[in-house]
Every structure is written in C-alpha cells, then in structure tokens.
Amino acid sequence: MTTAALLLLVAAVLLASTGPLLQPASAQGLGVAPDLLGAGAQATATAFEEFEDVLNLATVGGRGRGGRGSSGNIGGFSDARSFEQTQAAMYYIAGSSHTYLSPVIGKPRDQKSCLTCVAFAATEAVEMAVACAMHLDHTQLEGKGLTASPVSLYYCAPGGRSCNTGWDIPQALRNLVDAPQWLQPNVCMEKALAEEGLREAAVLNWPRMCRKAANQKACRTISRAQPLYTCSYKSLSSFYQIQQHIRRHGSVITRITIPNDWEVQFNSSKRTVKGLDTPAYKFNASAKAAYGHALTIVGFDNQNFTWTLLNSWGSGSDPDNLRVKGGITADGMVKVSMGLLGVAQPEETYGVTCEPSMGTSENLHGNMPWITDTNRRLLAQLPANQSQDGTCFNYTTRPGEDVAFIVDHFDLDIRAFVQHEANRGLFRLEDFTYKFAYKLQAAEFALSLQELSLLVYDGRFPPQLGSLNRLKYVSIRHHCLTGTLPPFLMRGLPKLNSLIVSTQLQRTYVSPSGDQCGISGSIPVSWQKNKSSITYLNLAYQRLSGKLPDITNWPMLTYLELQHNSFEGEVPLVWQNFFNNVLNKSLEPTADGGVVRIDISHNKLEGTFPRWDVPVANSVYVMPFRYLFLDGNTKLKGCIPVSGFSIVQYADTYITGLCFGDPGSAQWAQVVALNTTFRQMLRFGQINESTILGTLPVEYGNWPSLKSLNLKDNNLTGTIPPWSNLSSIVYLHSNNLDTWDSAPQETGPVATPRYCRLFKGVTCDKSNRVVQLNLTALGMGGQISKLSLLDITKVISPLTNLEVLVLARLGLSGGLAEVTQANPNAFPNLAVLDVSTNPGLTGPLPEELAVLTNLRVLDVSGSDVSGSLPISFVALQELREFRAVNCTRLSGSLPVDWGMLTNLEVLSVTSTYITGPLPSEYADYMAVRKVAVRAAAAAAAAATRARAAAEQSKRALGHPVTRSSGNSSLDADTYRAQRTRAVTYFNTAQRRAAVAQKVAQAVQAAASNGTRGRSSSGLGMLKLRQLLLNDNKLSGSLPVQYAQMRDLQVVNLSHNTLTGTIPRVFASLTKLTVLGLGHNQLHGPLPAAFVSLRRLAVLDVSNNKLNGSMPTSWRLMAGPGFRLQCLLLDSNTDVLITEEGSRGLMKSIEIRIPSTGLAINNSSSPLCSAMG
What we know:
Blueprint: H1 10-13, H2 34-37, H3 41-60, H4 80-94, E1 99-101, H5 117-134, H6 138-143, H7 150-156, H8 169-178, H9 186-196, H10 206-214, E2 229-236, H11 239-249, E3 252-259, H12 262-265, E4 289-301, E5 306-310, E6 333-337, E7 349-356, E8 380-381, E9 393-394, H13 403-409, H14 414-424, H15 436-439, H16 442-445, E10 451-460, E11 473-482, H17 489-492, E12 498-503, E13 520-521, H18 525-529, E14 536-538, E15 543-546, E16 559-561, E17 566-569, H19 575-585, E18 597-599, E19 604-608, E20 627-629, E21 635-640, E22 647-649, E23 654-658, H20 666-678, E24 693-694, E25 708-710, E26 715-716, E27 731-733, H21 754-757, E28 762-764, E29 770-774, H22 781-784, H23 789-796, E30 804-806, E31 814-815, H24 818-821, E32 832-834, E33 841-844, E34 857-859, E35 864-867, E36 881-885, E37 889-890, E38 906-910, E39 915-916, H25 925-958, H26 969-1010, E40 1026-1028, E41 1033-1036, E42 1050-1052, E43 1057-1058, E44 1074-1076, E45 1083-1084, E46 1098-1100, E47 1105-1106, E48 1126-1128, H27 1139-1150, E49 1159-1160
Parallel strand pairs: 10-11, 11-12, 12-14, 13-15, 14-16, 15-17, 16-18, 17-19, 18-20, 19-21, 20-22, 21-23, 24-26, 25-27, 29-30, 30-32, 31-33, 32-34, 33-35, 34-36, 35-37, 36-38, 38-40, 39-41, 40-42, 41-43, 42-44, 44-46, 45-47, 46-48, 48-49
Antiparallel strand pairs: 1-4, 2-7, 3-4, 4-5, 5-6, 8-9, 28-29
Subcellular location: Cytoplasm, Cytoskeleton, Cilium axoneme
Signal peptide: 1-27
Region (Disordered): 952-971
C-alpha cells in the first residue's frame, strides 16, 4: 500500500496518468444529436461537451485530444462560481479512477406492466445509499431487512396513483422526506398481496392494501414520526457531481428517453449477456424518441464515455420476463454513451442520501453504530521534527483508494487541498473537518465513561448518549437546549442513577431568534415502563408537558425535580405504590441522603391530591417523603396525606393543609380559619409606622392573596417566619436585603429560602444567594413607577453576587449614573443590565458604568439618554451586546476607541443624531493598536485630574467657613449650607476619583493586551454578529476593512447619508443573512461577487444612486443552495432589474427546495420583515 496520501505533491498525485490517455470522442464514434431526445437534450449535450473539456484539461493539460480537440467551453467564465465548479471538477476527475462501478448493486427488479419506473429507481437509490452509509453489500442489507418496497412507495404515498398513472421524479423524492412511512421493507407489501391472492395490476383498492401492509409485523412500528429511513435528496448540475455522488452513495436517479431502436441495439441475443459485457447504446441518426423512463446510474467509464445504468425491467435470465423482443440483459444493467438519451441531464438528475432513522433497531440512539474503527480512516500524528506546529499527520492508503476517495472521506475542499499540496507540500489537520461527532463514537467511550457533565448554550438533547451504556451520572446545564427527551435513553443506560437537565441559572430563556428555550414534549412512556435505578432526576425549568410520569418503576428514586414546567392533570394515584415501597424500606432521613424530595411546583396540575394510607402518622422515621413542593399549581386542592414531620409547601394552591394535622389544636384551627376567611378578601396589607412590638405571627403566612407587605419603621424583633403561603406577594419592604446575599450555614440542613423558590423574578445560586433580579417579571410597574433608579439601586446594592438586573418597562426616572452613585464598588459581578423602555431615564450615558467590568449586556433602548457614547466604555472588555435602540437624543460620533471591544457581538444604535463616518478602526487591528495607546493615556490623565479634584475637595472639607462674630441665625444657616455643599462636593469628588481610577486600570489592561504583538484575530470587533446603525446621520463611505468581520450575520446601515460604492470585498461575509444599505447616497454598480453570499435572505439597496443593472450571476441567488427571499433594488439612478430579470428570478425560485418565495422591490412583504 502507498503511504502518505496526505503528504503527496499535487503534480505527482493529481496530474499523473493512472491509465491510457482518453481517446478523442470522434475516434469512439460518438456524437450528440439534440433532436433525438426532445426536451433537455441540449442541456445534456452541453454538459457532455463541458465534461469532455474538463477531462481534456485534467488528463493531458489542455493540449488537445486527437482530431476533435477542445470545444472551447472552458476559458470564459460568467462568474466566480462557474470557475470554482470547473476547477473542482478538474481536480476531482484527475484524482479519481477513470472507471467505477458501485459495489452495492442489488438484484434487478421487474416493474412488469405498470408505469412504476420512478418508484423502482427511487427505492433502488435508497437501498444503495443505505448500504454505502452502513458499509454493507446488498446481500447483507437484505439480511437485515433493510430493503425498500417500490410498490408501497408508489401506491401508498400521497397522490392516489394507479398502475397506469406514472410518476414524476421530484414528486417521488419529496415523498421520501414528507411521507417516509411508506418506505417499507419489501416483505410487508408482499405478504399483504399474498394474503389477498392478488397481483399488483389486479388491485382495485390500494388504500386498503396499504393499511394491510402497514399492519404487518415488520412494519407496525414504522410511522411518519418514526420512519425506517431518514433520507434527503438534491439535484445535480454536472457530470462531475453525478460521478462524485455515485462514488459516495452508490447511485443517482436519472431520466432517459427510450428510442425506437432500443430493442434493436439490445436485441434478444443480449438477454443472456451481462450489461457490462454488452456494447453501449450508440448514436443512431434515424432513431426517434419513443417514451420516457427513469432508472439509476450505478457506474461510469470516462475512457469510453459511457454510463452504466440499472434498469427496472428485470433480468433476461428470468424465464417469466415478458420482454421477449429484447431491451434487457442478463443482470438488468446496460451502458449508454454519454450525451445521449437525456441520461444525466443537469438539474434533472438526483442524488439520494439515506441512513436508518434514529429509534430503529439499527440506530436506536442516533449514534450511527455502523461507524466503527474498521470503517474509519485513522491518522497518525507525525513526530515533532517532521511536523509543522504538531498539526501534520500521516495516512496509509488502502487498496483501491485514490485522492478523490480521501477528499470525500475527510470532507475536504479539493481545491484547497490541491493548493495546499502545491504551495507547501503538506496538508494541515486544521484545514479540514475530521467529522468528530460522527466518527468518534461509543466504542471509544462506552467501556469506561461513567460520569458526564456538559455546559452547552443551545442545540438539541443528544440521543446518542443512550449508547454510552456505562454512564451513571449525566448533567447537562444549558442556556437554550431544545427538542424532546430521547425515548430510548433509559433503555440504553441501565446503570444511570442521576440525570440532570436544567438551565444554567435556573430560569426560562428565550433564544435570540425569539423561540422559547427548554426541552419540550412529555416524559417518554418507555422511560416509565422499564425498571430503572435512577435516584436523582432533575428536569426543572423546561417546557415539558402532559401528565406527570408513573414513577412506580423507579424504586430507588429519592430526588424528583420537575418544577417550572407545564405538566397538567392530576397527581397520579399510582404514586401511592411508590410511596408504599418507600415506607416499607423505613428510610431514615439524614443530612446526606435517604430522604425523598419531590418538587412539582409551578406546573398546571389540578384536581384533588390523592389520598393514601400512612401507617404511622406522627413518626419522624416513617414518612412517604421528607420534602414536597406543590406551590403555584393554582387548581390543585384537597389535603396532603402525610405526617407532620414532612415538610410540605403549597403556596398559591387550594390545598387546605396536612390530612394528619391535629384538629383539636388551637393553632391548627387558627390556620384553617385565616386561610378560609382571608383567601378571597385580603388584597393589600400594610403593617408599618404603627410601632408593632415583638415577633411576627406565623399565622400571617396564610394570606395567599396578599400583594404588598411593608415592615419598615417598626420595633419588631426576631426573624421573618417561613411564610410559605404568601404566594401572591410582589412587594415586601424591609430595611435591607443583606440576608438575600448570605450563604447558608456550613453545618446542618438548610431549607431553600422562600424568596429563592417563590418570588417571581428572583433567581438564586446553589448557595441561595440572589444572582438574578428581574423586576419587570414581578409586574411591579404600577407600584414603583414613582421611584427613581437611585431608590432601587440603594436597596439592592447589598446583592454583591447579582449577575443579571432587569429593570425594563418600569417607568423609572433619574439618570443611569445612579447605578453606581451610591457605591462605586456595587454590583462587582453584574453581567446583564437592562434598563430599556424607561423614557424617564435622562441625562448622558455615564462614564461611571465603565466600572462594571464584568458587564456582558447593556441595554438602554427606549430611554431618554443624551450626549455622546462614552469612550470609557472600552473598559468593558467582556461586553457582548450594546443596545441603544430609539435613543433619539444621543449625538456625537461613533467612538473609534470602541474598536478595542474585541468581544462585542451586537452593536445596535438606531434613530439617533450620531454623525460622522463608520470607524474603520472597528476592523483594522493596526489602527486599534494606535487607538489603544491613546485611550490608555487619556484614561490615565482623567484619573489624575479626578484625584486632584478629590484632594481639593478634601482640603475644602477640612477648612470650614468661619462664622461671623454676631453668631446670628442667618450666619448659622449660611454655615450649614456651605458645610453641606462642601460635604456633597467631597463625596462626589471621591466617588468620581474612585471611578476614574478603576476605569483607567481597566483601559490600561485592555490597551496592554492590544499592544503586545497579538495577531489580528484578537483585535477589533471581529466577533461582531449584528451591526445595526440604521436611522442615524452617518456619512462617508463603507469601510472595506469591515470585510474582516467574518461572523457578521445582520447588517443594517439604512437611512443614513453614506456615500461611495458598495465594496465587492463584502462578498467574503459569507454568514450574512440580512444586508440593509437602503436610503443612502451610494453609487456605482452592484457587486457581481455577492453571488457567494449563499445565506443572504434580505438585501436592500433601494433609494440610492446605484447604476448599471443586476449582475447576471445574481440569478443564481434565487435558485437551489441559496436563501434569498427579499430583494429591494428600486429607486436608484438606473433601473437595476427589468421585468424580464424579475421573471427569471421568480422562475429560479420555483425549483428551490424547499421553496421560500421571493419578494422583489416590495418592502412591505412579510418576506422582508427581517429588515424590521
């Protein structure tokens, strides 16, 4: 075997001839007759001409191939995309063998007299794609029952076809995706027909027959939600793509026009001859088109210019085959010369990709277990003395492998691979994807992995975890995980004892796209039916729904946390069986285990809590559970059948208490009376300024409708009782919140504080310290609308662990400087500050906010802030999002210093009076280095001035104003006023000095990072995803440097006064989905290179001074592989798009799958809504 396929030189590997040179087409007697085939023939003929030229260039360097030479189709390219496609085709063909036959071809099938050729071709392609994916031959595929019935697909898929109807290829392929339940094993329909004693052509009631087939044992579990296969398909636009798909997936589906001389060239003498040994169908000038047909291409010969096809007319060796005149071969295969009969027509030839669906026996957990070490191509890292930075690897090829195979297997871009090989002779591992998620499977982990902890931002719950069958502990903390719980997870993890799937900060989230985060659906029935050793199940703060699970088969369960979901219905009566098992074990509660804790609070449960027998009512050692939390289930009623030694909380429910309470107790009677009497009556309570003495009564906690409670200015002693029933309270005013920030005691069990469990908008960490405070969620706007921001920050400033502070839509007044005015060291951990939609917040954006150096999100949208954007904000090096939407009083220019905000991902400043140019420094790392030096010097100078002012205020405070000798009342008042001003000046100056010093330190640290010779990847706003600067007064040109912001997805610079041309280098922003440049003064042509923006959905360049016309290459943007849905080109100097151009785009959009529609020059269309 040959070594170092990844270290080969291009000249040696790709351009070396692997066989005889290709002969000119004329020498083979080939020709192209467009009139022979009807529609599509010219496209096929043209594709063949281009393919010949690519072969010519790839094999003999473009020097001509005999008498025919080159057609001249290569050399003039309409756009960059066509050149890249030709380049890739040339490299791929040069690096692959000239002949190929799929190794997964099955036995020939016979469609007999019915017009079902499309279904036969589709199912053959499905079977071969599955065989390639699983590395099986067709015999092994049949042994596993992984066949596909063309009869089921044809007659049962939506559309109502008969034996004589026929079918279209695209419609059939759509059903592979939209109705996959009809991809059934052959045996189901065969048994159904046999039981009825019918042949296919004799069936009159196909819906009934389809139901009968679906009810066969092998097909009962197949449904649309759980199909046998998961398939996709695509149209192929060139011979090179067709050959590549055949190598990867076994076959492609093609149309063919059968001519009237087919049975002449394949006469009856060919019935006993294999197709590969039979001459190919050749051009016949007198032949005419007879009818259309569909079959699969399973091989090719680039030396003799032929395709190898698998037909669906059965085998010539079958004595029952009705085609006695000919047209068939012994193995059902035939060869056709390239360019004839419409075979491999561009865009009308389709490739199918399939694999067993997750949940089937072959792929139960979605981990694709057929990907094993024997099917992987493993790399060996080169020694350090032979490697570049430790990223070079050796690969040993196997027999039959060529460069094209390596490119296919490792998902390489063959153009980049060739260029790397040519330029440096080595290909680095960092340059390609090794398909880790699909290649590194359970085999590497399952033998040892027992504990798994993940912290993820988004995605779906990974069902592949079910294959790691030794796992005992799984913890997935997330911000925005979605999807459903895998139904077979518990079956695959028999040793699992702890499963935790919870949000990182124990709250519900909304994704940036507006979707609700969290796992949805119900707890799978299969989890409940199988015995499990699970002891800890935490699925809190998700979007789970349906009934509560049956936990009878989870006898070891001690912790069940399902709070903050949407479970509905009654608490299952069968839970009594579980609790009886617990009682029989006589579990003794201890600090470290042995207690049962169930939290099903804040769901949608209703009905009466079920009653069951408790053997000993008042024993600390015998109880069904120690903790039960039912709060927030507003329709739950009845009593709780447990002993008084269980801790039960049921705020905001109709639960009356414990069924085993002592009815003779005066305290119990008082609780019942208060609960009954005040439940519907009491809406507001105030206990303040009345000099209440002593402690607060526990019974006050039984007022579930209480909204506001003020305990300020009294002589109360003791602590606030555990008022677990005050579920409606939203305003609790005591003198401070210091206790909200206290960690629990180090020893002894500590119950979770009530404010962590019940207060809306309050989120605590594991140590019960408040880390999130969302006053908007409290619905307190009406109660605190008269408060200033300073009033709130003074109260909550003791919360030093606070990470998220949301004060949006509260009608607050004051200035933003009040956030740090009371204490410059307040909120040291604050990461999110949202004060949006408070028009009463006025004044400039304060420099002091720069002391919040951990800030990641700052939102002042909809406020009345004014002035310029502070330069000091460069100290916020952790800042990811800055939003100032509709802040109409902001002015000045965009600070160039903000180019130092290297982690910024969202910059949204709209509807302001900000003027000046777009700073090129935001993407120019050399300019940022200079800015960093200047910013550090400016911050240091500001700190020096602030310290001088602080010293001056200190001296003024130490020299009070001298009183006059008369000592009159006026003198005393003047003295006090001056003294007060001196104290105020001193406090303000000291605070400003402290703030300036912290800002200077942060800016200097950021500047130091920016001037230590770091690479350009670490400087500037190169992580920016959204740049929203619309509706301002910006001027100047579009900086070409912004092309370096490769992560940009949304750019809206509309409604400014920008000039110049649209930089063509913006075509490198390949992640762009929205580009808004409308309502400016841009001129020049539209960049043709924008055709590379495949993800672009909305493009607005309307109302400018652009000239010329829409580039021809832009028509591709409406076709397959692109996402364009809104194109606004109107109101420019020239008419950029004609009616004919619009029709061309709309025609292209019709063949896009899936079709998204396209709005042209219609800004009011919903398709353009992404522009806002």
